[in-house]
Amino acid sequence: MMVWDPIGVREEPNAQDEYDSYLGDVFALLTSGASDDQINEHLLRIVTERMLLPARKENMQSTVSALRQIQLPQESK
């Protein structure tokens, strides 16, 4: 929420779980080896199709970069 807050609820105490429903899909993309572009497109679709907000692909890049900094478990093969 510190990096990706498309609807601007970061400071609203009652909305701290606002984006939780998107975590599962993003986690799956990250742990399955999705490319930055795939994650970027997914975030863009969330904002434009689910939230119905205007957004550009470039706006998602800082979020993708931040997500890549999170240490995640590797998918077992």
State the end-to-end CA separation. 31 Å
Structural class: mainly alpha
What is the percent of helical residues? 40-55%
Question: What would you report as the Rg, rounded to the nearest angstrom?
Answer: 13 Å
What's the total helix number? 3
Broad shape: globular
Number of strands: 0
Average pLDDT works out at 92
Q: Strand share of the residues? A: under 5%
Low-confidence stretches: none
Largest sheet: none
Pattern of helices and strands: HHH
State the assembly state of the protein chains.
Answer: single chain
In words, what does this structure look like?
With 77 residues, the protein is an all-alpha fold. It has a domain at 22-68. Helix content is 42%, strand content 0%. The chain contains three helices and no strands. The model has no long low-confidence stretch (mean pLDDT 92).
Name some characteristics of this structure.
single chain; 77 residues; mainly alpha; 3 helices
Secondary structure topology:
Layout lengths: L22 H9 L4 H15 L10 H8 L9
